[in-house]
Structure formats: structure tokens, C-alpha cells
Write a structure and sequence with these properties.
Ferritin; 10 helices; 66% helix; two-stranded parallel sheet; 1% strand; mainly alpha; binds fe (ii) ion; globular; 269 residues; 2 strands
């Protein structure tokens, strides 16, 4: 894979334009390593694609077209769960490099530093899940996946505070709510390795929500907006789902997002 990127936006777009999932994760990690050795200029010359390149499979469906998962802890459910999380991680790689390429130029350098760290984590998460899928006689692309995450990204392509409110502060925070039960499910079926992988991801994701809420508060301060009410306004306008309790308040608090941010939205729903 070529690595002759001249600046951070070229490198970020290289991740977005990589089609094969494992290659995308590899390029993401290479870009992060290069950024950390300061061999990439903090310069923005490229426009990111509306949609990142993706492999032919999985088929991307609207969320309401997704096959319903039956309750219970059988092998095919566990495989579907690992596949769903792998798909989220692949989207998360693209989302991290998209936010850099799209919005990094107008933000302090620390913004790019933070999202490079997130993108590197997401690439590592994808690789970990890919290896768990293999252990379960499967692979990424084996099952259909939903396109809701990229839809949210396109809805907020020109509005950074809305992107931060919807992607890290609603969608990634939702991941914190559902992870502990998922980890328990793998533990109880004797798949301690998958449980460990999901635990690692969970710990890292608290940091990602923290990055999102920190930069959201930075913008609120800069524009003299009250962070909680601004967050609620943006979520109501740009997020087309519901905020579903129960919330993992412990993890959300650690990520700098107290209940005063999201509880009023859940009540309205
Ligand atoms: Fe992740
Ligand atoms: Fe994340």
C-alpha cells in the first residue's frame, strides 16, 4: 500500500478510499503511526468522499430491513453479534478519518490528534473482531449489515457540532449502554476471548465518547452556547431515532456526559 501522503487530509482520504476492510484497518494504523512521528503535514488539501469505499459484501440494508435476531445465546446469534460489532468498528474507522478530513482544518491540532487516536483504536477493534469471527467459522461480509451509521454521518456532513452530538455522544454512547450485557453473554457461554475483546473495546469507547463530548463543549464555549441545551437541540434535529434507557450512567459520567445531557431527550421520547 502506497504511503506517500503529503499531508493529513490525503492520508485520511486514503483510509476512506480503501475498499477492503482489513486493508482499511491496516492503512488507518499506518496513518496513525505516521501522524505520531510527525511526518505528515497538518495541512488540508483533499475533500473526503460522500461515501467511503467499502467491500462488495456485506450487503448494506436499511435498519428496518435487517433480519430480526432471535433471543437466546445460540451460536448463530453470537456470530451475528460479533458481525454487527465488527461492522460498527469498520464504520467507526471511516467516521474518525472523515471527521479529520472534513473538519480538522478549522480546529486546533489537538482535534486531529484525538481523532487519530480514535481511528487507530477502531482499526485495532476491527482486527480483533475479525479474528473472533474467524474463531466462530465466519468472516466480515458473511451477514448483511445496516447502513444507519453512515446515514448519520451524511446527515451531519456540514455541521461539526451536530456530528459530535449524534455520532460520539449518541451512537457511541449507546454502545456503552449495551456492552456490559454483551460481555456477560460471551462469558456465560465460555467464550472468554470474545468477552475480553469486547471488554477492551468497551474501555476504549469510554475514551471516544469523552473525546466527542470534550470537543463539543469546546465549541459550545467558543460560540457561547449552553452545552446541554445545544446538544438536545441538535440531537432533536439531526438524530432520527430514540434515546433508549436504561443508560449506563457510570460509563457516561466517566466520558464527561452527565445525565443532564441526555435524560430530557429520553423522557420526551
Ligand atoms: Fe471501536
Ligand atoms: Fe469508538
Amino acid at each position: 500500500m502506497a504511503q506517500d501522503w503529503k499531508n493529513i487530509s490525503e492520508a485520511a482520504c486514503a483510509v476512506l478510499n480503501t475498499e477492503k476492510a482489513t486493508d482499511k484497518a491496516t492503512v488507518a494504523r499506518q496513518v496513525a503511526a505516521k501522524w505520531r512521528t510527525e511526518t505528515l503535514a497538518f495541512k488540508f488539501t483533499e475533500t473526503p468522499p460522500t461515501r467511503p469505499a467499502r467491500p462488495n459484501r456485506p450487503d448494506l440494508l436499511a435498519p428496518n430491513e435487517m433480519p430480526r435476531r432471535r433471543k437466546g445465546g445460540n451460536e448463530s446469534n453470537r456470530r451475528a453479534l460479533l458481525h454487527a460489532v465488527a461492522h460498527i468498528e469498520l464504520n467507526a474507522i471511516d467516521l474518525a478519518f472523515d471527521i479529520i478530513a472534513r473538519f480538522g482544518a478549522k480546529m486546533p491540532r489537538g482535534f486531529t490528534d484525538d481523532w487519530i487516536g480514535v481511528g487507530d483504536d477502531e482499526a485495532r477493534h476491527f482486527m480483533l473482531l475479525n479474528s473472533r469471527l474467524k474463531a466462530h467459522q465466519s468472516y466480515y461480509g458473511d451477514l448483511p449489515a445496516h447502513d444507519g451509521l453512515w446515514q448519520s454521518s451524511m446527515d451531519t456532513a456540514t455541521n461539526l457540532p451536530a456530528r459530535l452530538a449524534v455520532v460520539p455522544m449518541v451512537l457511541e454512547a449507546r454502545g456503552l449502554d449495551v456492552s456490559p450485557a454483551m460481555i456477560e453473554q460471551f462469558k456465560s457461554t465460555g467464550d472468554a476471548t470474545s468477552a475480553d475483546v469486547l471488554q477492551t473495546i468497551y474501555n476504549d469507547e469510554i475514551g471516544h465518547v469523552a473525546v466527542g463530548s470534550r470537543w463539543f463543549k469546546f465549541l459550545a464555549g467558543k460560540l457561547n452556547r449552553e452545552a446541554e441545551s445545544w446538544f438536545q437541540e441538535l440531537v432533536s434535529k439531526y438524530f432520527h431515532g430514540q434515546l433508549k434507557p436504561p443508560f449506563n450512567t457510570h460509563a457516561r459520567n466517566r466520558a464527561g456526559m452527565p445525565a443532564s445531557f441526555y435524560e430530557p431527550l429520553a423522557k420526551k421520547a
